[in-house]
Amino acid sequence: MIPDQDLKKKDDLFLISEYCSTNDKIYVGVLFERYTHLIFGVCMKYLRDEDEAKDAVMAIFEKLMTDLKKYKIEFFRAWLHMVAKNYCLMKLRQAKRHVSFLDNKPVESNAEWHREEKIELESKLNLLEIAIQELDDQQKTCIKMFYLEEKSYQEITDQTGFDFNQVKSYIQNGKRNLKIYMQKNER
After folding, report:
1. CA separation (Å) from 142 to 70, 77, 80, 89, 101?
2. Which of 22, 38, 98, 142 gives 170 a disulfide partner, CB atoms 3.0 to 4.6 angstroms apart?
């Protein structure tokens, strides 16, 4: 076992590798300490509520205990940012589904968000789902696997039979096509 001070000097991929091979949570603890501020910032940006953001940070790091073993991660900081963003967007979608009506006025579970902002976000998410369906099959497959299933380029290559450059191209072109579709169809 490496002393705590020395662990803090180790890079992210070393910590992930050691966690996966030993199942010792101390390695995830170092990552937690290192990236709590980043994840909290992402959560505050989306959730706009300090208590919800703190709860989200804890849930995301709990989720890491299994996700670190499931996925091959090459750039941990970027991957973690994407996981936090996706987690927050899912929380917002869940909150949207739990709208209750009192006196014909919607009351939302997150009081900090304005009703219009949530409706706009839901509208954009729905439009994005439609836009994904409009992509050609290769782009759609790669976009879904990369962004929704959080697979790496290599995992997509292995599962689809596309070569690495094709996967990269399909994702880049798919992103561009999604952006064009979204801009064209936003109200």
Report:
1. 19, 22, 20, 21, 40
2. 142
